[in-house]
Specification:
about 220 residues, globular, Tetracycline Repressor, domain 2, 2 domains, single chain, Arc Repressor Mutant, subunit A, 10 helices
């Protein structure tokens, strides 16, 4: 068994190590099959020590989602700062690039996003934190964008719903709950991106019908 973490930094390091190991386990074990006792054993910790850091499995993976969510927000802000968002084409390209990045380099976020509702039910203030962080990102995008905060929020929300829908379709095809490795499939990425393009094209036509300047 590992020694007890005593300093604030040691405790933070241990919490991060727990999250890293949980991420690793998702590669080979679906979320529903992961047990806190197995995670503790893999880390050389007692189950009691693990529960000191995270009161249940939902809370643990919600913290992992929060970590990945912050990375997503930072990526969107960095990409937006380097782009011209004065017309819808610029916003469209930003969202498609960000989605492509998720599917190639941040699959953990994609996987956890589909479990968000399940985890938020036990998440304390995490829902408020994530909403506040999303609002800050949207406000920064809207300052340079042809779209308003509500319009940008609608697009981001639709993206999350699209990911969840594609996940459910894929899991029905696979016939099991799935692991993170199941997302590492070019066909899945193509499906998500094709549906996203279709949705964004339709959204742009809706703006044009409403008389909003989009180009």
């Amino acid at each position: 068994m590992q020694k007890r973490a005593r300093t604030a930094q040691a405790k933070q390091d241990r919490a991060n190590a727990i999250l890293d190991k949980a991420r690793q386990m998702l590669l080979t074990t679906g979320y529903d099959r992961i047990k806190m006792a197995d995670l503790a054993g893999a880390l050389g910790l007692s189950s009691g020590t693990l529960y000191v850091y995270f009161q249940n499995k939902e809370t643990l993976f919600l913290h992992l989602l929060r970590r990945e969510f912050e990375q997503r927000m930072e990526h969107l802000e960095q990409e937006a700062a380097a782009r011209d968002l004065s017309d819808f084409a610029g916003v469209r390209d930003l969202l498609l690039e960000a989605l492509s990045y998720l599917l190639q380099d941040q699959l953990l976020y994609v996987y956890l996003e589909t479990l968000r509702a399940q985890m938020l039910a036990c998440g304390g203030d995490s829902a408020r934190w994530m909403r506040s962080r999303l609002d800050r990102m949207l406000e920064r995008l809207a300052e340079r964008s042809a779209l308003s905060v509500p319009q940008l929020q609608e697009l981001i929300t639709a993206e999350a719903a699209l990911l969840t829908g594609c996940f459910l379709q894929r899991m029905c095809t696979l016939g099991h709950a799935g692991t993170l490795r199941d997302w590492q499939d070019p066909a899945f990425a193509r499906l998500v991106l094709a549906r996203a393009r279709c949705y964004l094209d339709g959204y742009e036509r809706g703006l044009q019908r409403a008389g909003q300047e989009v180009s």
